[in-house]
Amino acid sequence: DLQQVMVSGPNLNETSIVSGGYGGSGDGLIPTGSGRHPSHNTTPTGPGDEVARGIAGEKFDIVKKWGINTYKCTKQLLSERFGRGSRTVDLELELQIELLRETKRKYESVLQLGRALTAHLYSLLQTQHALGDAFADLSQKSPELQEEFGYNAETQKLLCKNGETLLGAVNFFVSSINTLVTKTMEDTLMTVKQYEAARLEYDAYRTDLEELSLGPRDAGMRGRLESAQATFQAHRDKYEKLRGDVAIKLKFLEENKIKVMHKQLLLFHNAVSAYFAGNQKQLEQTLQQFNIKLRPPGAEKPSWLEEQ
């Protein structure tokens, strides 16, 4: 087992002041009067020096506490990994946290695929638009095939219009999934990380208190035991608070996820179904139902792909 090492620094509050001369008369020593230099240099002190020493002392204490805390947590972590130490486990909460991490990984996969679909749709629209322009140009320059080129040009224009509508719906779907994954879920996982760190500290100081309790009960040990008990209680309160925070955030996250995904999956289904069925009216109604506004034709705004 690792052993705790206590580092003690110099007492920053002690100062050494050397007298500047000798006083008195008839003692056989040379008096120090005006115009004579003292035999030793003096160290001037003032309010600024006291403040500087106080700040230095506070910083030293902070570093010392951080070092002790890091040592205890590292020792606890190694003990748990090698199976020598015990850890506090909330089975229900741990299961919910693991489920959240797995859900986040799956939603990240959906987000990646959604972005790929957006890119493909954008490329398809660019091709259809170019093809429609080519058909329209050939319709003007090929009298014998004017009608055939003409209705193909109109078809491509209609497909572009419906494609832009579908692209708007898919972009809205991707944006909502991105918010859910990178903000809502990530915020909850940040609280989870704080909770896990507090759990490790709690177990580290619990172990420390248990070890002290097994030692001799002399006067010095009683003082150390009382101090360890107070520190343990503070870390226990912090752990309990964060455990409650995580439970609440997990509950609200689940409710929010269901609400958001119910809306987004309905949007995605209706938009894709209407597009491939060629139902322009239903496609436009889908965007109106979810209050999605497309950029007007010719507006100098970023494309759906560029906004990603």
UniProtKB/TrEMBL annotation:
Alphabetical UniProt keywords: Golgi apparatus, Membrane, Phosphoprotein
Gene3D superfamilies per UniProt: Arfaptin homology (AH) domain/BAR domain (1.20.1270.60)
Region span, Disordered: 16-51
Keyword Endoplasmic reticulum: no
Recorded GO CC terms: cytosol; trans-Golgi network membrane
InterPro entries, A to Z: AH/BAR_dom_sf, AH_dom, Arfaptin_fam
Subcellular location: Golgi apparatus, trans-Golgi network membrane
CDD domains per record: BAR_Arfaptin (cd07660)
Pfam family, one: Arfaptin
UniProt GO MF annotations: phosphatidylinositol-4-phosphate binding; protein domain specific binding
Domain AH: 88-288
GO biological process, one term: regulation of Arp2/3 complex-mediated actin nucleation
Entry keyword Phosphoprotein: yes
The protein's name: AH domain-containing protein
Source organism of the structure: Balaenoptera physalus (Fin whale)
